[in-house]
Amino acid sequence: MTDPAPQTPEAFESSARPPLVRRPQFWLVVVAAILAVIVAFVVGAAIGGAGVGSGGAAAGAAPTTGNTDEAATPPASSAPPTPLPVVHEIPEDCEAIYTRDWSGDFAPLVLNPAWAMEPESGVQFGSVDETAVELLTSASAITCKWGNPAGGSDRGLTTNVAHVTEEQAAAIIAHFGESGHSCYEELQGTRCVRETPPSADGQAGESHFIRDDVWIATHWVNAGPDGYTHDIVAAIFG
């Protein structure tokens, strides 16, 4: 009988080890791999679901721009629009508030003598009524004065042409009616006049014409040619 072949150390070590499937380390690796796959799947599903939730609205509907004017605008009303207030242009030059030259009617007075244009001249307003002066201070668009070229005298006339609102016009007309002026309809507007009784010093008075958004206020002392206010009305209103 022949002796069996001697075993090498490698062969001995191999025969001494148990099979791979019987080793605990093998199953630990397998379980760890399975758990890693499961965790990866769950994380991937969560990330994918979040992406759909955040981008789904953009994918399923047109993106909003933040402009909600169209949605917030109520439907147009069937009621007719409120007409805008009438605005008439007031000339910036005194000669333009008339349709003709009044120099001959006022002579020897002249239009806007230098002394009368100074603030301290005391002839700034077409009224001596405190309520009227208060409104003219802020509303007057132009002031035109007829006076003695050499200085103050017992003759003169001052006219303010002012823009007023509907409420201001109604209030000043009511005030004139309560303060002794005679008010009546004229030239599609309202005219309010008042005169002082004649005296040794002559006579003074006021004329106020209000139409739409324009107020023509005139204060005169011994100088008031006929047709003066009518001519200003014609120049502004046509």
Care to give the gist of this entry?
The protein has 238 residues and is of the alpha+beta class.
Characterization of this structure:
Keywords: Membrane, Transmembrane, Transmembrane helix. The chain has 238 residues and is of the alpha+beta class. Helices cover 36% and strands 19% of the residues. The chain is built from seven helices and seven strands. The chain folds into two domains: 36 residues; 144 residues, 3-Layer(aba) Sandwich (Protein Transport Mog1p, Chain A), CATH 3.40.1000. A hairpin with a 2-residue loop joins β4 and β5. The chain has a seven-stranded antiparallel beta sheet, with helices on both faces.
For this entry, give a set of tags.
about 240 residues, membrane, Protein Transport Mog1p, Chain A, elongated, transmembrane, 2 domains, 7-stranded antiparallel β-sheet, transmembrane helix, alpha+beta, 7 helices
- The CATH class of the largest domain turns out to be Alpha Beta
CATH fold-level name of the largest domain: Protein Transport Mog1p, Chain A
First-residue to last-residue Cα separation: 151 Å
Summing up helix and strand content along with how strands pair, one would put the structural category as alpha+beta
Uncertain runs are: 1-17, 50-69
Order of helices and strands: HHHHEHEEHEEEEH
* Overall tally of domains: 2
Major sheet strand order: 1-2-3-7-6-5-4
The CATH architecture designation of the largest domain is 3-Layer(aba) Sandwich
| Rough outline | elongated
